[in-house]
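Run folding on both entries below.
>entry_1
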Amino acid sequence: MFSGSMVAIVTPMTADGGLDWPAWDRLLDFHVREGTDGIVVAGTTGESPVLLAEEIEELTRRAVGRCHGKLKLIVGAGTHSTAATVARARALSRLGVDGLMLVTPYYNKPPQEGLYRHFVAAADASAVPVILYNVPGRTAVDLLPGTVARLARHPQIVAIKEATGSIARARETLSVCPPEFTLLSGDDASAIDLMSVGARGVISVSANIAPRRMHEACAAALAGDLAKARAIDASLQLLHKDLFVEASPIPVKWAVARMGLIGNAIRLPLVELSTAHQATVLRAMQAAGITLEDQAA
Protein backbone atom coordinates (compact mmCIF):
# COMPACT_ATOMS: atom_id res chain seq x y z
CA MET A 1 0.00 0.00 0.00
CA PHE A 2 2.77 2.43 0.95
CA SER A 3 6.15 2.08 -0.75
CA GLY A 4 8.89 3.92 -2.58
CA SER A 5 10.07 7.46 -1.91
CA MET A 6 7.55 9.44 0.09
CA VAL A 7 8.55 12.99 0.87
CA ALA A 8 8.11 14.48 4.34
CA ILE A 9 7.24 17.73 2.64
CA VAL A 10 8.18 21.15 4.00
CA THR A 11 5.43 23.67 4.74
CA PRO A 12 6.03 26.93 2.85
CA MET A 13 5.50 30.11 4.85
CA THR A 14 5.49 33.84 4.25
CA ALA A 15 7.74 36.32 6.00
CA ASP A 16 4.92 37.29 8.37
CA GLY A 17 4.42 33.67 9.47
CA GLY A 18 1.40 32.79 7.37
CA LEU A 19 1.14 29.82 5.03
CA ASP A 20 2.25 30.46 1.45
CA TRP A 21 -0.47 28.88 -0.66
CA PRO A 22 0.99 29.62 -4.13
CA ALA A 23 4.25 28.01 -2.98
CA TRP A 24 2.30 25.02 -1.65
CA ASP A 25 0.81 24.49 -5.10
CA ARG A 26 4.28 24.76 -6.68
CA LEU A 27 5.71 22.19 -4.28
CA LEU A 28 2.88 19.73 -4.87
CA ASP A 29 3.22 20.05 -8.64
CA PHE A 30 7.00 19.66 -8.37
CA HIS A 31 6.68 16.33 -6.58
CA VAL A 32 4.08 14.99 -8.97
CA ARG A 33 6.30 15.97 -11.90
CA GLU A 34 9.47 14.50 -10.35
CA GLY A 35 7.99 11.08 -9.64
CA THR A 36 7.63 11.20 -5.85
CA ASP A 37 5.62 8.16 -4.75
CA GLY A 38 3.88 9.83 -1.84
CA ILE A 39 3.59 13.06 0.14
CA VAL A 40 3.41 13.28 3.92
CA VAL A 41 1.72 16.51 4.94
CA ALA A 42 2.41 17.96 8.39
CA GLY A 43 5.16 15.62 9.44
CA THR A 44 8.18 16.71 11.48
CA THR A 45 9.74 18.25 8.37
CA GLY A 46 6.48 20.10 7.77
CA GLU A 47 6.80 21.78 11.21
CA SER A 48 3.80 19.93 12.63
CA PRO A 49 4.42 21.11 16.22
CA VAL A 50 3.77 24.74 15.23
CA LEU A 51 0.91 24.21 12.78
CA LEU A 52 -2.64 24.87 13.97
CA ALA A 53 -5.18 22.09 13.50
CA GLU A 54 -7.10 24.19 10.99
CA GLU A 55 -3.89 24.85 9.04
CA ILE A 56 -3.19 21.13 8.80
CA GLU A 57 -6.74 20.56 7.55
CA GLU A 58 -6.38 23.24 4.86
CA LEU A 59 -2.96 21.97 3.75
CA THR A 60 -4.51 18.52 3.46
CA ARG A 61 -7.60 19.67 1.57
CA ARG A 62 -5.47 21.51 -0.97
CA ALA A 63 -3.11 18.57 -1.39
CA VAL A 64 -6.03 16.21 -1.97
CA GLY A 65 -7.58 18.60 -4.46
CA ARG A 66 -4.35 18.95 -6.42
CA CYS A 67 -2.78 15.48 -6.18
CA HIS A 68 -5.52 12.91 -5.61
CA GLY A 69 -4.90 9.85 -7.74
CA LYS A 70 -1.41 11.00 -8.77
CA LEU A 71 0.49 9.76 -5.71
CA LYS A 72 -0.19 8.60 -2.16
CA LEU A 73 -1.25 11.30 0.29
CA ILE A 74 -0.59 10.86 4.00
CA VAL A 75 -1.14 13.39 6.76
CA GLY A 76 0.48 13.59 10.17
CA ALA A 77 -2.17 13.46 12.88
CA GLY A 78 -0.15 12.54 15.96
CA THR A 79 0.22 14.66 19.09
CA HIS A 80 1.31 14.06 22.70
CA SER A 81 -2.36 13.92 23.75
CA THR A 82 -4.46 10.85 23.01
CA ALA A 83 -7.70 12.84 23.00
CA ALA A 84 -6.28 15.39 20.56
CA THR A 85 -4.82 12.66 18.37
CA VAL A 86 -8.15 10.82 18.24
CA ALA A 87 -9.92 14.04 17.24
CA ARG A 88 -7.37 14.77 14.52
CA ALA A 89 -7.44 11.19 13.26
CA ARG A 90 -11.21 11.31 12.97
CA ALA A 91 -11.24 14.65 11.12
CA LEU A 92 -8.19 14.29 8.86
CA SER A 93 -8.89 10.72 7.78
CA ARG A 94 -12.15 11.85 6.18
CA LEU A 95 -10.57 14.45 3.86
CA GLY A 96 -9.70 12.05 1.05
CA VAL A 97 -6.18 11.04 2.11
CA ASP A 98 -4.73 7.56 1.68
CA GLY A 99 -3.37 7.28 5.19
CA LEU A 100 -2.49 8.88 8.52
CA MET A 101 0.92 9.00 10.16
CA LEU A 102 0.91 8.94 13.96
CA VAL A 103 4.05 9.84 15.87
CA THR A 104 4.67 8.42 19.32
CA PRO A 105 3.40 10.78 22.05
CA TYR A 106 6.28 13.08 22.87
CA TYR A 107 7.40 14.68 26.14
CA ASN A 108 5.14 12.73 28.53
CA LYS A 109 7.16 9.48 28.01
CA PRO A 110 4.43 6.81 28.24
CA PRO A 111 5.31 3.16 28.86
CA GLN A 112 4.75 0.54 26.16
CA GLU A 113 1.22 -0.23 27.36
CA GLY A 114 0.37 3.47 27.18
CA LEU A 115 1.74 3.64 23.64
CA TYR A 116 -0.29 0.59 22.66
CA ARG A 117 -3.55 2.03 23.99
CA HIS A 118 -2.83 5.46 22.48
CA PHE A 119 -2.37 4.06 18.98
CA VAL A 120 -5.34 1.71 19.23
CA ALA A 121 -7.60 4.60 20.24
CA ALA A 122 -6.40 6.69 17.29
CA ALA A 123 -6.61 3.82 14.81
CA ASP A 124 -10.16 3.06 15.97
CA ALA A 125 -11.09 6.65 15.06
CA SER A 126 -9.43 6.61 11.64
CA ALA A 127 -11.27 5.97 8.39
CA VAL A 128 -7.99 5.18 6.56
CA PRO A 129 -4.88 3.05 7.19
CA VAL A 130 -2.41 4.19 9.82
CA ILE A 131 1.38 4.41 9.72
CA LEU A 132 3.07 4.40 13.13
CA TYR A 133 6.07 6.74 13.48
CA ASN A 134 8.93 5.92 15.83
CA VAL A 135 11.55 8.66 16.22
CA PRO A 136 12.99 8.35 19.74
CA GLY A 137 15.66 10.98 19.10
CA ARG A 138 12.91 13.60 19.04
CA THR A 139 10.17 12.17 21.23
CA ALA A 140 12.13 10.66 24.16
CA VAL A 141 10.13 7.43 23.84
CA ASP A 142 10.89 4.29 21.83
CA LEU A 143 8.14 2.13 20.32
CA LEU A 144 9.59 -1.37 20.73
CA PRO A 145 9.14 -4.22 18.24
CA GLY A 146 6.99 -6.26 20.62
CA THR A 147 4.52 -3.38 20.90
CA VAL A 148 4.60 -2.85 17.15
CA ALA A 149 3.71 -6.54 16.72
CA ARG A 150 0.68 -6.13 18.98
CA LEU A 151 -0.40 -3.02 17.08
CA ALA A 152 0.07 -4.73 13.72
CA ARG A 153 -2.91 -6.93 14.57
CA HIS A 154 -5.20 -3.89 14.37
CA PRO A 155 -6.87 -3.86 10.93
CA GLN A 156 -6.13 -0.15 10.38
CA ILE A 157 -2.45 -0.21 11.42
CA VAL A 158 -0.52 -1.27 8.33
CA ALA A 159 2.99 0.19 8.57
CA ILE A 160 5.65 1.86 10.67
CA LYS A 161 8.09 4.63 9.84
CA GLU A 162 11.17 3.53 11.78
CA ALA A 163 13.58 6.43 12.20
CA THR A 164 16.22 4.83 14.41
CA GLY A 165 18.29 3.91 11.36
CA SER A 166 19.07 0.56 12.97
CA ILE A 167 19.28 -2.50 10.71
CA ALA A 168 18.99 -4.75 13.77
CA ARG A 169 15.78 -2.96 14.81
CA ALA A 170 14.38 -3.31 11.29
CA ARG A 171 15.11 -7.04 11.21
CA GLU A 172 13.56 -7.58 14.63
CA THR A 173 10.40 -5.63 13.78
CA LEU A 174 9.91 -7.51 10.53
CA SER A 175 10.49 -10.84 12.27
CA VAL A 176 7.67 -10.32 14.80
CA CYS A 177 5.08 -8.62 12.55
CA PRO A 178 2.79 -10.20 9.95
CA PRO A 179 4.31 -10.45 6.45
CA GLU A 180 1.84 -7.91 5.08
CA PHE A 181 2.92 -5.27 7.63
CA THR A 182 5.12 -2.60 5.99
CA LEU A 183 8.36 -1.20 7.36
CA LEU A 184 9.40 2.23 6.03
CA SER A 185 12.69 3.92 6.76
CA GLY A 186 12.59 7.28 8.48
CA ASP A 187 16.32 7.84 8.03
CA ASP A 188 17.60 8.76 4.56
CA ALA A 189 21.21 7.78 5.19
CA SER A 190 20.32 4.14 5.96
CA ALA A 191 17.18 3.80 3.84
CA ILE A 192 18.67 1.58 1.12
CA ASP A 193 20.29 -0.63 3.75
CA LEU A 194 16.91 -1.02 5.46
CA MET A 195 15.31 -1.83 2.13
CA SER A 196 17.91 -4.54 1.61
CA VAL A 197 16.49 -6.37 4.64
CA GLY A 198 12.81 -5.87 3.84
CA ALA A 199 11.76 -2.23 4.21
CA ARG A 200 9.48 -1.06 1.39
CA GLY A 201 10.59 2.54 1.09
CA VAL A 202 11.42 5.74 2.92
CA ILE A 203 9.64 8.79 4.27
CA SER A 204 12.33 11.20 3.26
CA VAL A 205 13.76 14.63 4.03
CA SER A 206 16.21 14.47 1.12
CA ALA A 207 13.33 13.93 -1.32
CA ASN A 208 12.43 17.59 -0.79
CA ILE A 209 15.66 18.39 -2.67
CA ALA A 210 16.26 15.35 -4.91
CA PRO A 211 12.86 13.72 -5.45
CA ARG A 212 13.66 12.07 -8.78
CA ARG A 213 16.87 10.49 -7.51
CA MET A 214 15.22 9.27 -4.31
CA HIS A 215 12.40 7.73 -6.36
CA GLU A 216 14.90 6.02 -8.67
CA ALA A 217 16.96 4.64 -5.78
CA CYS A 218 13.88 3.21 -4.08
CA ALA A 219 12.51 1.80 -7.35
CA ALA A 220 15.81 0.02 -7.99
CA ALA A 221 15.87 -1.40 -4.46
CA LEU A 222 12.28 -2.61 -4.72
CA ALA A 223 13.14 -4.27 -8.04
CA GLY A 224 16.00 -6.11 -6.35
CA ASP A 225 18.78 -4.12 -8.02
CA LEU A 226 20.62 -3.09 -4.89
CA ALA A 227 23.80 -2.23 -6.78
CA LYS A 228 21.94 0.41 -8.80
CA ALA A 229 20.10 1.67 -5.72
CA ARG A 230 23.36 2.07 -3.81
CA ALA A 231 25.07 3.78 -6.73
CA ILE A 232 22.30 6.40 -6.90
CA ASP A 233 22.24 6.75 -3.14
CA ALA A 234 26.01 7.25 -2.94
CA SER A 235 25.66 10.60 -4.73
CA LEU A 236 23.08 11.67 -2.12
CA GLN A 237 24.88 10.64 1.06
CA LEU A 238 26.39 14.08 1.66
CA LEU A 239 22.92 15.57 1.27
CA HIS A 240 21.45 13.03 3.71
CA LYS A 241 24.05 14.05 6.28
CA ASP A 242 24.23 17.81 5.82
CA LEU A 243 20.49 18.41 5.82
CA PHE A 244 20.88 17.81 9.56
CA VAL A 245 23.71 20.25 10.34
CA GLU A 246 21.04 22.11 12.34
CA ALA A 247 17.70 20.86 13.61
CA SER A 248 15.51 19.72 10.74
CA PRO A 249 13.73 21.29 8.91
CA ILE A 250 15.98 24.37 9.19
CA PRO A 251 18.54 23.23 6.56
CA VAL A 252 16.05 21.62 4.18
CA LYS A 253 13.81 24.69 4.09
CA TRP A 254 16.84 26.85 3.27
CA ALA A 255 17.78 24.40 0.51
CA VAL A 256 14.28 24.31 -1.02
CA ALA A 257 14.29 28.11 -0.96
CA ARG A 258 17.63 28.10 -2.86
CA MET A 259 15.88 26.00 -5.51
CA GLY A 260 13.34 28.80 -5.94
CA LEU A 261 10.34 26.75 -4.82
CA ILE A 262 9.56 28.54 -1.55
CA GLY A 263 10.63 31.58 0.44
CA ASN A 264 13.14 31.19 3.26
CA ALA A 265 10.68 31.47 6.15
CA ILE A 266 10.26 29.28 9.21
CA ARG A 267 8.28 29.56 12.45
CA LEU A 268 9.70 30.15 15.87
CA PRO A 269 11.12 28.57 17.93
CA LEU A 270 13.07 27.45 14.84
CA VAL A 271 15.03 30.10 12.95
CA GLU A 272 16.65 30.39 9.51
CA LEU A 273 19.83 28.43 8.74
CA SER A 274 22.87 30.16 10.21
CA THR A 275 25.36 31.73 7.83
CA ALA A 276 28.05 29.43 9.21
CA HIS A 277 26.26 26.35 7.82
CA GLN A 278 25.01 27.67 4.49
CA ALA A 279 28.16 26.77 2.56
CA THR A 280 27.99 23.23 3.93
CA VAL A 281 24.43 22.68 2.74
CA LEU A 282 25.20 24.35 -0.57
CA ARG A 283 28.14 21.98 -1.19
CA ALA A 284 25.93 18.99 -0.44
CA MET A 285 23.31 20.23 -2.92
CA GLN A 286 25.95 20.77 -5.59
CA ALA A 287 27.42 17.31 -4.97
CA ALA A 288 23.95 15.87 -5.55
CA GLY A 289 23.61 17.79 -8.81
CA ILE A 290 20.81 20.07 -7.62
CA THR A 291 20.00 23.07 -9.80
CA LEU A 292 19.89 26.28 -7.77
CA GLU A 293 17.61 29.18 -8.57
CA ASP A 294 20.47 31.37 -9.82
CA GLN A 295 21.66 28.54 -12.10
CA ALA A 296 18.31 27.85 -13.72
CA ALA A 297 17.95 28.69 -17.38
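>entry_2
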Amino acid sequence: MNKPEKYAVVARITGAHGIKGWVKVHSYTQPTENVFDYKPWQIELDGCKQAFEADSFRSQGKGIVAHLCGVDNRNQAEALSGLDVCVLREQFDVLEDDEHYWYELQGLKVYSLVEEVRVLLGEVSGFLETGANDVLMVKGCSHSIDQKERLIPYVDQFLLKVDTDEGEILVDWDPEF
Protein backbone atom coordinates (compact mmCIF):
# COMPACT_ATOMS: atom_id res chain seq x y z
CA MET A 1 0.00 0.00 0.00
CA ASN A 2 1.04 3.60 -0.46
CA LYS A 3 2.44 5.62 2.41
CA PRO A 4 -0.59 6.95 4.29
CA GLU A 5 -1.45 10.63 4.19
CA LYS A 6 -0.50 12.30 7.46
CA TYR A 7 -3.80 14.21 7.62
CA ALA A 8 -7.34 12.92 7.99
CA VAL A 9 -10.60 14.71 7.22
CA VAL A 10 -12.61 15.20 10.44
CA ALA A 11 -15.25 17.69 9.28
CA ARG A 12 -16.54 19.85 6.46
CA ILE A 13 -17.46 23.51 6.55
CA THR A 14 -20.92 23.65 5.01
CA GLY A 15 -21.61 27.37 4.99
CA ALA A 16 -21.54 30.70 6.73
CA HIS A 17 -23.63 31.42 9.83
CA GLY A 18 -24.51 35.03 10.51
CA ILE A 19 -22.42 38.08 9.65
CA LYS A 20 -19.55 37.81 12.17
CA GLY A 21 -17.51 35.06 10.51
CA TRP A 22 -19.10 31.99 12.09
CA VAL A 23 -19.23 28.81 9.99
CA LYS A 24 -21.52 25.77 9.97
CA VAL A 25 -19.55 22.60 10.62
CA HIS A 26 -20.51 19.04 9.70
CA SER A 27 -18.37 16.89 12.00
CA TYR A 28 -17.42 13.30 11.18
CA THR A 29 -16.33 12.60 14.78
CA GLN A 30 -18.30 10.79 17.44
CA PRO A 31 -19.62 12.65 19.35
CA THR A 32 -19.71 15.54 16.92
CA GLU A 33 -18.22 18.05 19.37
CA ASN A 34 -15.00 16.01 19.55
CA VAL A 35 -13.91 17.73 16.34
CA PHE A 36 -12.95 20.70 18.53
CA ASP A 37 -10.48 18.56 20.51
CA TYR A 38 -8.15 18.50 17.49
CA LYS A 39 -5.95 21.53 16.97
CA PRO A 40 -5.05 23.15 14.73
CA TRP A 41 -7.48 22.52 11.92
CA GLN A 42 -5.90 22.42 8.48
CA ILE A 43 -7.98 23.77 5.61
CA GLU A 44 -6.69 23.75 2.05
CA LEU A 45 -6.95 27.17 0.41
CA ASP A 46 -5.40 27.91 -2.98
CA GLY A 47 -3.53 24.59 -2.94
CA CYS A 48 -1.95 25.15 0.49
CA LYS A 49 -3.00 23.86 3.88
CA GLN A 50 -3.62 26.72 6.29
CA ALA A 51 -3.96 26.37 10.05
CA PHE A 52 -7.15 27.58 11.75
CA GLU A 53 -8.25 27.40 15.35
CA ALA A 54 -11.84 27.47 16.56
CA ASP A 55 -11.97 29.98 19.40
CA SER A 56 -15.67 29.38 20.05
CA PHE A 57 -18.34 26.86 19.08
CA ARG A 58 -21.88 25.84 20.00
CA SER A 59 -24.77 23.62 18.99
CA GLN A 60 -27.12 25.29 16.54
CA GLY A 61 -30.31 23.46 15.62
CA LYS A 62 -29.30 19.96 14.50
CA GLY A 63 -25.68 20.96 13.83
CA ILE A 64 -22.78 22.94 15.20
CA VAL A 65 -21.33 26.32 14.36
CA ALA A 66 -17.88 27.68 15.11
CA HIS A 67 -15.91 30.89 14.97
CA LEU A 68 -12.41 30.54 13.56
CA CYS A 69 -9.65 32.93 14.63
CA GLY A 70 -9.09 35.49 11.87
CA VAL A 71 -12.42 34.83 10.15
CA ASP A 72 -14.43 37.85 11.18
CA ASN A 73 -17.04 38.51 8.50
CA ARG A 74 -19.51 36.62 6.36
CA ASN A 75 -17.43 36.92 3.16
CA GLN A 76 -14.44 35.24 4.82
CA ALA A 77 -16.72 32.50 6.21
CA GLU A 78 -18.35 31.91 2.82
CA ALA A 79 -14.90 31.47 1.24
CA LEU A 80 -14.45 28.39 3.48
CA SER A 81 -17.80 26.85 2.55
CA GLY A 82 -17.51 23.34 1.13
CA LEU A 83 -13.94 22.83 2.33
CA ASP A 84 -12.73 19.86 4.36
CA VAL A 85 -11.24 20.24 7.83
CA CYS A 86 -8.16 18.05 8.29
CA VAL A 87 -6.02 17.28 11.33
CA LEU A 88 -2.82 15.34 11.88
CA ARG A 89 -3.64 11.64 12.28
CA GLU A 90 -1.08 11.33 15.04
CA GLN A 91 -3.58 13.13 17.30
CA PHE A 92 -6.05 10.21 17.11
CA ASP A 93 -6.41 7.70 19.93
CA VAL A 94 -5.16 4.17 19.30
CA LEU A 95 -8.12 1.87 18.63
CA GLU A 96 -8.74 -1.75 19.54
CA ASP A 97 -7.71 -4.36 16.92
CA ASP A 98 -11.26 -4.77 15.58
CA GLU A 99 -11.93 -1.01 15.33
CA HIS A 100 -10.98 1.27 12.45
CA TYR A 101 -11.10 4.93 11.58
CA TRP A 102 -12.91 5.63 8.32
CA TYR A 103 -9.77 7.03 6.73
CA GLU A 104 -8.12 3.62 7.22
CA LEU A 105 -10.84 1.98 5.12
CA GLN A 106 -10.91 4.53 2.30
CA GLY A 107 -9.63 2.94 -0.92
CA LEU A 108 -9.51 -0.63 0.40
CA LYS A 109 -10.51 -3.36 -2.07
CA VAL A 110 -13.79 -5.08 -1.18
CA TYR A 111 -14.17 -8.79 -1.92
CA SER A 112 -17.10 -11.16 -1.51
CA LEU A 113 -17.10 -14.94 -1.47
CA VAL A 114 -19.25 -16.43 -4.22
CA GLU A 115 -19.29 -20.23 -4.11
CA GLU A 116 -15.96 -20.14 -2.20
CA VAL A 117 -14.35 -17.89 -4.85
CA ARG A 118 -13.22 -14.36 -3.95
CA VAL A 119 -14.87 -11.79 -6.21
CA LEU A 120 -13.70 -8.17 -6.32
CA LEU A 121 -16.71 -5.88 -5.88
CA GLY A 122 -14.72 -2.62 -5.99
CA GLU A 123 -13.08 -0.29 -3.53
CA VAL A 124 -14.32 1.80 -0.63
CA SER A 125 -15.14 5.24 -2.03
CA GLY A 126 -16.86 6.74 1.00
CA PHE A 127 -19.22 6.27 3.91
CA LEU A 128 -22.77 7.12 4.84
CA GLU A 129 -24.15 7.68 8.31
CA THR A 130 -27.73 6.41 8.32
CA GLY A 131 -28.49 6.65 12.02
CA ALA A 132 -29.04 2.91 12.37
CA ASN A 133 -25.53 1.96 11.18
CA ASP A 134 -22.74 3.17 8.95
CA VAL A 135 -22.68 2.12 5.29
CA LEU A 136 -19.66 1.46 3.06
CA MET A 137 -19.90 3.01 -0.39
CA VAL A 138 -18.15 0.57 -2.73
CA LYS A 139 -17.43 1.72 -6.28
CA GLY A 140 -16.35 -0.52 -9.13
CA CYS A 141 -12.67 -0.29 -10.04
CA SER A 142 -10.27 -1.90 -12.49
CA HIS A 143 -10.54 -5.71 -12.27
CA SER A 144 -13.82 -5.60 -10.31
CA ILE A 145 -16.74 -7.68 -11.59
CA ASP A 146 -18.51 -4.53 -12.82
CA GLN A 147 -18.56 -0.77 -12.33
CA LYS A 148 -21.64 -0.65 -10.09
CA GLU A 149 -21.73 1.31 -6.86
CA ARG A 150 -22.83 -0.80 -3.92
CA LEU A 151 -23.96 0.30 -0.48
CA ILE A 152 -22.97 -2.32 2.09
CA PRO A 153 -24.00 -1.93 5.74
CA TYR A 154 -20.91 -1.77 7.96
CA VAL A 155 -22.19 -4.31 10.47
CA ASP A 156 -20.87 -7.67 11.70
CA GLN A 157 -23.57 -9.53 9.75
CA PHE A 158 -21.90 -8.58 6.44
CA LEU A 159 -18.28 -7.91 7.48
CA LEU A 160 -16.19 -11.06 7.53
CA LYS A 161 -12.71 -9.53 7.75
CA VAL A 162 -11.05 -6.13 7.59
CA ASP A 163 -7.33 -6.31 6.83
CA THR A 164 -5.82 -2.85 6.49
CA ASP A 165 -2.30 -4.32 6.11
CA GLU A 166 -3.41 -6.24 3.00
CA GLY A 167 -5.63 -3.36 1.86
CA GLU A 168 -8.84 -5.36 1.71
CA ILE A 169 -12.21 -6.07 3.26
CA LEU A 170 -14.01 -9.41 2.91
CA VAL A 171 -17.80 -9.19 3.03
CA ASP A 172 -20.74 -11.57 2.84
CA TRP A 173 -22.57 -9.73 0.07
CA ASP A 174 -24.39 -10.94 -3.02
CA PRO A 175 -22.75 -9.23 -6.04
CA GLU A 176 -26.17 -8.91 -7.67
CA PHE A 177 -27.19 -6.24 -5.13
